[in-house]
Design brief:
This protein is mainly β and about 300 residues long. About 10% of the residues lie in helices and about 60% in strands. Strand 3 and strand 4 form a beta hairpin. It is elongated, with a radius of gyration of 25 Å. The two termini are about 35 Å apart.
């Protein structure tokens, strides 16, 4: 009977989590920063609300009533006959105002995305299981620039380039935590990273030689497709645990590795048919570093 109830809980949870994850992958309003032009973009702050604002201290947080996404060893703290679910969203407003040549230029942009979907439940005495779906990195930018070269201006015209990109990489984590002996727990988790990032540049020429018309000279597009498994281990130790005081030390180690994204590149001529003049598919070496995190939590 207990096994049947557990299966039902996981089916319901999966039905909620998977559509949200698919929605997150198709969202293009989760970042707005020129710094996301590089690699897989801006890394997101990991953890649910109680731990993401604590810095590294969240690695040591151990609670029977709150989800901890940062350390799989914390899964063993889930109370018997308990099912924990956490869902978080976040939004930001970006506003910029600049003055140049006596004119004021203003830009404003709003972003909105889910932050985490997490589940935690006991499997047996001193053994817990956790699952989480979180954005790992986000890409969103639009940058323009003009080529300042007298020779180009005199022979061709004014050349302007637009660089833009959007997309994200999502982390799915599934792990177990086990209280090995009193006040000491270990955990292990598998991490799966997947997502698509689209980047493009467009070169536009304003012909100063034969007229004032503008035309698109070239369009370049790159698509990064990420699909990779990695791993994490964690430990927690209750140095003090009584009715008045709690002090827990925790540590995690992420093995890291090469995301090895598949990169599809295409270069188009800006004619009526957007003729492809060059295109290929390669794999890019893009390595996530090994990470060691240590934290202490007390109350």
């Amino acid at each position: 009977m207990h096994v049947k109830k557990t299966i039902v809980k996981w089916v319901v949870a999966a039905a909620v989590a998977l559509p949200c994850g698919a929605w997150a992958q198709t969202s293009s309003i989760n970042a707005f920063s020129p710094y996301s032009m590089y690699g897989i973009g801006e890394l997101q702050t990991q953890g649910a609300l109680p731990t993401r604002s604590m810095g590294g201290a969240g690695v040591g947080m151990r609670s029977s009533s709150r989800v901890n996404l940062l350390n799989p060893a914390a899964y063993s703290a889930t109370a018997p006959k308990t099912f924990l679910f956490d869902f978080g969203v976040e939004g930001q407003n970006f506003y910029n105002s600049q003055q140049r040549d006596g004119r004021t230029a203003r830009t404003s942009y709003n972003t909105f995305n889910f932050h985490d979907i997490a589940l935690q439940m006991p499997l047996a005495r001193k053994l817990g299981l956790g699952f989480s779906l979180t954005p790992y990195s986000s890409v969103g930018y639009r940058v323009t620039g003009t080529i300042e070269d007298d020779e180009i201006w005199g022979n061709i015209g004014r050349v302007q380039q637009l660089y833009s990109g959007e997309g994200d990489v999502t982390e799915v984590k599934l792990g177990i935590g086990w209280m090995l002996f009193k006040n000491f727990s270990i955990g292990v988790a598998g991490q799966y990273y997947w997502g698509d990032i689209d980047r493009s540049f467009t070169t536009t020429v304003t012909n100063n030689v034969v007229g004032s018309g503008s035309f698109t000279a070239a369009i370049g597009k790159q698509t990064y497709s990420v699909s990779r498994f990695m791993g994490q281990v964690g430990v927690q130790w209750n140095a003090i645990l009584n009715a008045k005081r709690i002090l827990t030390f925790g540590a995690t180690y992420d093995f890291g590795g090469d995301l090895n994204p598949e990169v599809t590149k295409k270069l188009y001529i800006g004619d009526l048919y957007n003729t492809v003049v060059k295109g290929d598919t390669t794999h890019l070496k893009l390595v996530l570093p090994r990470q060691l995190a240590v934290g202490a939590y007390g109350q």
